[in-house]
Amino acid sequence: MSRQTADIIQARLLGMLVDLAPDVGERLPSERVLARMLGCSRATLRKALDMLEKDGALWRHVGQGTFRGRRPRHLPIRDTVMVQSETPAELIRARRLVEPQVAAEAARCAVPADVAHLRAIVAAGRVARDRSACEETDAAFHRAVAGVSRNPVLFSFLIYLSGARRRTLWQREWDRIYRRVGIDEFRTVHSDQHDRIVDAIAAGDAEAAAGEMETHLETIEAAILTETD
Protein backbone atom coordinates (compact mmCIF):
# COMPACT_ATOMS: atom_id res chain seq x y z
CA MET A 1 0.00 0.00 0.00
CA SER A 2 1.14 3.54 -0.70
CA ARG A 3 2.27 6.03 1.92
CA GLN A 4 -0.54 8.28 0.74
CA THR A 5 -3.10 5.62 1.66
CA ALA A 6 -1.52 5.23 5.08
CA ASP A 7 -1.71 9.02 5.50
CA ILE A 8 -5.42 8.94 4.73
CA ILE A 9 -6.03 6.12 7.19
CA GLN A 10 -3.97 7.99 9.79
CA ALA A 11 -6.14 11.10 9.40
CA ARG A 12 -9.36 9.11 9.56
CA LEU A 13 -8.22 7.18 12.59
CA LEU A 14 -7.12 10.37 14.36
CA GLY A 15 -10.61 11.77 13.84
CA MET A 16 -12.14 8.62 15.35
CA LEU A 17 -9.90 8.38 18.42
CA VAL A 18 -12.24 10.17 20.83
CA ASP A 19 -15.13 7.89 19.88
CA LEU A 20 -13.02 4.72 19.94
CA ALA A 21 -11.35 5.53 23.28
CA PRO A 22 -13.07 8.45 25.07
CA ASP A 23 -10.48 8.68 27.84
CA VAL A 24 -6.70 8.82 27.62
CA GLY A 25 -5.35 5.39 28.52
CA GLU A 26 -8.35 3.46 27.19
CA ARG A 27 -7.74 0.57 24.82
CA LEU A 28 -8.75 0.81 21.15
CA PRO A 29 -10.40 -2.07 19.28
CA SER A 30 -8.14 -4.78 17.87
CA GLU A 31 -6.26 -4.31 14.59
CA ARG A 32 -8.65 -6.73 12.90
CA VAL A 33 -11.66 -4.65 13.96
CA LEU A 34 -9.99 -1.34 13.08
CA ALA A 35 -8.97 -2.57 9.62
CA ARG A 36 -12.54 -3.66 8.96
CA MET A 37 -13.95 -0.33 10.21
CA LEU A 38 -11.54 1.66 8.04
CA GLY A 39 -11.73 -0.61 5.00
CA CYS A 40 -7.97 -1.06 4.73
CA SER A 41 -5.40 -3.83 5.02
CA ARG A 42 -3.71 -4.67 8.32
CA ALA A 43 -0.38 -3.59 6.78
CA THR A 44 -1.74 -0.13 5.92
CA LEU A 45 -3.36 0.16 9.34
CA ARG A 46 -0.06 -0.63 11.06
CA LYS A 47 1.70 2.11 9.08
CA ALA A 48 -0.98 4.56 10.19
CA LEU A 49 -0.69 3.37 13.80
CA ASP A 50 3.09 3.79 13.62
CA MET A 51 2.66 7.40 12.57
CA LEU A 52 0.10 8.12 15.28
CA GLU A 53 2.33 6.52 17.89
CA LYS A 54 5.26 8.71 16.80
CA ASP A 55 2.98 11.75 17.15
CA GLY A 56 2.01 10.69 20.69
CA ALA A 57 -1.67 10.15 19.82
CA LEU A 58 -1.54 6.53 20.94
CA TRP A 59 0.82 3.81 22.17
CA ARG A 60 0.98 0.05 21.69
CA HIS A 61 2.11 -2.81 23.88
CA VAL A 62 2.60 -6.36 22.60
CA GLY A 63 0.01 -8.72 24.01
CA GLN A 64 -2.06 -5.90 25.48
CA GLY A 65 -3.26 -3.73 22.60
CA THR A 66 -3.33 -0.12 21.44
CA PHE A 67 -4.12 2.69 23.88
CA ARG A 68 -5.04 6.34 23.42
CA GLY A 69 -2.43 8.92 24.44
CA ARG A 70 1.32 8.86 25.00
CA ARG A 71 3.00 5.79 26.45
CA PRO A 72 3.15 6.17 30.26
CA ARG A 73 6.75 6.34 31.38
CA HIS A 74 6.23 3.71 34.07
CA LEU A 75 4.98 0.94 31.76
CA PRO A 76 7.39 -1.79 30.62
CA ILE A 77 8.19 -1.76 26.92
CA ARG A 78 8.64 -5.50 26.54
CA ASP A 79 6.47 -8.37 27.80
CA THR A 80 9.62 -10.19 28.88
CA VAL A 81 9.89 -7.77 31.79
CA MET A 82 6.99 -9.68 33.40
CA VAL A 83 6.69 -13.40 34.02
CA GLN A 84 4.26 -15.05 31.61
CA SER A 85 1.35 -16.76 33.37
CA GLU A 86 0.46 -20.30 32.42
CA THR A 87 -3.21 -20.72 33.34
CA PRO A 88 -6.29 -18.62 34.10
CA ALA A 89 -6.25 -20.04 37.65
CA GLU A 90 -2.74 -18.68 38.19
CA LEU A 91 -3.74 -15.30 36.82
CA ILE A 92 -6.75 -14.96 39.09
CA ARG A 93 -4.71 -16.02 42.12
CA ALA A 94 -2.15 -13.35 41.27
CA ARG A 95 -4.98 -10.84 41.04
CA ARG A 96 -6.30 -11.91 44.45
CA LEU A 97 -2.91 -11.19 45.97
CA VAL A 98 -2.71 -7.69 44.49
CA GLU A 99 -6.07 -6.17 43.60
CA PRO A 100 -7.64 -5.97 47.09
CA GLN A 101 -4.71 -3.79 48.16
CA VAL A 102 -5.07 -1.76 44.96
CA ALA A 103 -8.72 -1.14 45.86
CA ALA A 104 -7.71 -0.17 49.38
CA GLU A 105 -5.21 2.34 48.03
CA ALA A 106 -7.85 3.68 45.65
CA ALA A 107 -10.13 4.30 48.65
CA ARG A 108 -7.37 6.38 50.25
CA CYS A 109 -6.71 8.42 47.09
CA ALA A 110 -10.07 8.81 45.32
CA VAL A 111 -11.57 12.20 44.53
CA PRO A 112 -15.20 12.76 43.42
CA ALA A 113 -14.26 12.72 39.72
CA ASP A 114 -12.68 9.29 40.17
CA VAL A 115 -15.82 7.93 41.80
CA ALA A 116 -18.00 9.35 39.02
CA HIS A 117 -15.80 7.69 36.40
CA LEU A 118 -15.98 4.33 38.18
CA ARG A 119 -19.76 4.56 38.48
CA ALA A 120 -20.05 5.31 34.76
CA ILE A 121 -18.08 2.17 33.93
CA VAL A 122 -20.29 0.05 36.21
CA ALA A 123 -23.38 1.51 34.53
CA ALA A 124 -21.97 0.58 31.12
CA GLY A 125 -21.40 -2.97 32.36
CA ARG A 126 -25.05 -3.31 33.34
CA VAL A 127 -26.14 -2.74 29.74
CA ALA A 128 -23.33 -4.66 28.00
CA ARG A 129 -24.79 -6.32 24.93
CA ASP A 130 -22.48 -9.30 24.48
CA ARG A 131 -19.51 -11.17 25.95
CA SER A 132 -17.00 -8.85 24.29
CA ALA A 133 -18.67 -5.77 25.77
CA CYS A 134 -18.74 -7.46 29.18
CA GLU A 135 -15.02 -8.16 29.00
CA GLU A 136 -14.21 -4.63 27.84
CA THR A 137 -16.15 -2.96 30.64
CA ASP A 138 -14.78 -5.38 33.25
CA ALA A 139 -11.21 -4.68 32.15
CA ALA A 140 -11.94 -0.94 32.07
CA PHE A 141 -13.28 -1.08 35.64
CA HIS A 142 -10.24 -2.86 37.07
CA ARG A 143 -7.85 -0.56 35.16
CA ALA A 144 -9.73 2.46 36.46
CA VAL A 145 -9.52 1.27 40.07
CA ALA A 146 -5.78 0.81 39.59
CA GLY A 147 -5.54 4.30 38.11
CA VAL A 148 -7.31 5.80 41.12
CA SER A 149 -4.63 4.27 43.37
CA ARG A 150 -2.18 6.81 41.86
CA ASN A 151 0.54 4.15 42.06
CA PRO A 152 2.30 3.62 38.70
CA VAL A 153 3.76 0.26 39.73
CA LEU A 154 0.37 -1.15 40.68
CA PHE A 155 -1.19 0.33 37.56
CA SER A 156 1.49 -1.24 35.37
CA PHE A 157 0.97 -4.66 36.94
CA LEU A 158 -2.81 -4.50 36.52
CA ILE A 159 -2.40 -3.48 32.86
CA TYR A 160 -0.19 -6.52 32.38
CA LEU A 161 -2.74 -8.85 33.95
CA SER A 162 -5.51 -7.30 31.86
CA GLY A 163 -3.48 -8.04 28.72
CA ALA A 164 -2.55 -11.52 29.90
CA ARG A 165 -6.14 -12.61 30.23
CA ARG A 166 -6.70 -11.98 26.52
CA ARG A 167 -4.19 -14.68 25.65
CA THR A 168 -5.47 -17.83 23.99
CA LEU A 169 -5.50 -20.10 27.05
CA TRP A 170 -7.41 -17.65 29.21
CA GLN A 171 -9.89 -16.89 26.42
CA ARG A 172 -10.59 -20.58 25.85
CA GLU A 173 -11.49 -21.06 29.53
CA TRP A 174 -13.42 -17.79 29.75
CA ASP A 175 -15.43 -18.63 26.62
CA ARG A 176 -16.55 -21.85 28.29
CA ILE A 177 -17.48 -20.00 31.48
CA TYR A 178 -19.56 -17.41 29.63
CA ARG A 179 -21.37 -20.10 27.67
CA ARG A 180 -22.32 -21.69 31.00
CA VAL A 181 -23.26 -18.66 33.10
CA GLY A 182 -24.21 -16.20 30.34
CA ILE A 183 -23.75 -12.45 30.27
CA ASP A 184 -26.67 -11.85 32.64
CA GLU A 185 -24.45 -12.82 35.56
CA PHE A 186 -21.98 -10.13 34.58
CA ARG A 187 -24.74 -7.53 34.25
CA THR A 188 -26.13 -8.41 37.69
CA VAL A 189 -23.83 -10.25 40.12
CA HIS A 190 -20.51 -8.88 38.85
CA SER A 191 -21.89 -5.36 38.36
CA ASP A 192 -23.41 -5.43 41.86
CA GLN A 193 -19.99 -6.38 43.22
CA HIS A 194 -18.35 -3.60 41.21
CA ASP A 195 -20.89 -1.18 42.69
CA ARG A 196 -20.03 -2.24 46.23
CA ILE A 197 -16.33 -1.75 45.52
CA VAL A 198 -17.07 1.78 44.30
CA ASP A 199 -19.25 2.48 47.35
CA ALA A 200 -16.34 1.56 49.62
CA ILE A 201 -13.90 3.66 47.58
CA ALA A 202 -16.31 6.61 47.64
CA ALA A 203 -16.57 6.28 51.44
CA GLY A 204 -12.79 6.27 51.76
CA ASP A 205 -13.03 2.91 53.54
CA ALA A 206 -9.83 1.09 52.55
CA GLU A 207 -10.64 -2.06 54.53
CA ALA A 208 -14.10 -2.39 53.00
CA ALA A 209 -12.77 -1.72 49.50
CA ALA A 210 -10.20 -4.50 49.89
CA GLY A 211 -12.86 -6.86 51.24
CA GLU A 212 -15.32 -6.16 48.44
CA MET A 213 -12.61 -6.65 45.83
CA GLU A 214 -11.62 -9.94 47.49
CA THR A 215 -15.23 -11.12 47.37
CA HIS A 216 -15.48 -10.17 43.70
CA LEU A 217 -12.32 -12.02 42.76
CA GLU A 218 -13.41 -15.05 44.78
CA THR A 219 -16.55 -15.18 42.62
CA ILE A 220 -14.47 -15.12 39.44
CA GLU A 221 -12.05 -17.72 40.77
CA ALA A 222 -14.91 -20.02 41.76
CA ALA A 223 -16.33 -19.85 38.24
CA ILE A 224 -12.94 -20.63 36.71
CA LEU A 225 -12.14 -23.51 39.07
CA THR A 226 -15.62 -24.99 38.66
CA GLU A 227 -15.22 -24.94 34.91
CA THR A 228 -11.71 -26.42 34.92
CA ASP A 229 -12.29 -29.16 37.54
Keyphrases for this structure?
9 helices, single chain, two-stranded antiparallel sheet, 2 strands, globular, 72% helix
In words, what does this structure look like?
This protein has nine helices and two strands; from the N terminus they run αααββαααααα. With 229 residues, the chain is mainly alpha-helical. The chain has a two-stranded antiparallel sheet with strand order 1-2. A hairpin with a 3-residue loop joins strand 1 (58-61) and strand 2. The longest helix is centred in the C-terminal third of the chain and has 35 residues, at 168-202. It starts with a helix and ends with a helix.
Quick overview:
The chain has 229 residues and is mostly helical. The protein contains 9 helices and 2 strands, in the order αααββαααααα.
Describe the global form. Answer: globular
Strand content range = under 5%
Strand order of the largest sheet: 1-2
Please state the structural category. mainly alpha
Give the beta-strand count. Answer: 2
The chain-level mean pLDDT equals: 82
